[in-house]
Amino acid sequence: MRLSRAAVLRQAKAAALDGVRRLNCWGSHLTDISICRDLPNIEVITFSVNGISDLEPLTQCRNLSELYLRKNNITSLNELFHLKGLPRLRVLWLAENPCCGQDPHRYRMTVLRNLPGLQRLDNQAVTEEELSQALVDGVEITAPPARRNVENGWAECTESSAAGSTTEPGSELLGSSLEETNKIQEELDMKPVPRDKYSSFSPRETDCNRKKRNNVLNAILLLMKELDAEGLEIIQQTVVRRLQALQKKELQEE
Q: Fewer beta carbons under 10 A from the terminal one: N or C of the chain?
């Protein structure tokens, strides 16, 4: 799916592309982010849980400081070549992409060797010792990856898997584990969910219902970040009333 101009302006609540400072398109099934070439003033981008494979459009985002790309379809670390010219990039979340490979040390060292200005990588602070070690253990990337028709391959894979599946669209991407939920919370600058609270749901709950509940929860968490104080107070009051109603129902059933 291509990220359109209209979608960017709507999500960022901006009148023009050069006025967009933050963009959150988490879990939007994106494969084409060409529109990023027209976002010169963007500072924070959240593209986690999509199907993005090509980072070349980000080369024009010279003011970018935070980039979240967890769980995409980035197959080669050579894509980092497109980020090397971004002088203000300080935070990168690239974990859970095919390019991370089976050697986490080599992966981290290679990223830091090519992006030594990072302060956080995959939600872990970067140390001076790591930056020094990266010069030894990391691989220098001197050219972008060879162009290939990865986007069509992703689309074909998605369509073929969807054709043989009866699960709700996007449910596999969203996931339902405590770890996944807290990664989402972290990206939204929210507190992690305690294990006792997460596991308090009924064990009789079906996988289908659990996935549906988590899809709704993830959508609510994303929307909450867009609310002001007044909107959050309304949400809080609604939640309190809903909890009271559920508690009353449980007491009646007992």
A: C
Q: Regarding beta strands 120-121 and 66-68, do their DSSP bridges make them parallel or antiparallel, or are they unpaired? A: unpaired
- Tell me the pLDDT tens digit for each residue of 172-185: 334 445 666 666 66
In a domain, 246, yes or no: no
CA distance 202 to 244: 18
Q: What is the CATH number of the domain that holds 12?
A: 3.80.10.10
Q: Report the half-sphere exposure of 122 (CA within 13 A, side-chain side).
A: 14
pTM of the model: 0.63
- The 10 Å CB-count burial string (b at 16+, else e) for 116-126 is eebeebbeeeb
Instruction: Record the tokens describing residue 40, joined without a space.
Output: 């010169």
Buried b (16+ CB within 10 A) or exposed e, 191-207: eeeeeeeeeeeeeeeee
Spatial neighbors of 46 by CB under 8 A, at least 6 apart, are: 23, 24, 25, 26, 68, 187
* Cα 183 versus chain centre, distance: 9
C-alpha span between 164 and 104 (Å, rounded): 33
Name, in order, each residue with C-beta under 8 angstroms of 112's C-beta and a sequence gap of 6 or more. Answer: 118, 121, 126, 130, 131, 134, 138
pLDDT score recorded for residue 234:
75
For 204, the token pair is 């009789």
CA distance 248 to 242: 10
**Does 76 map to a domain?**
yes
Residue 239, domain member (yes or no): no
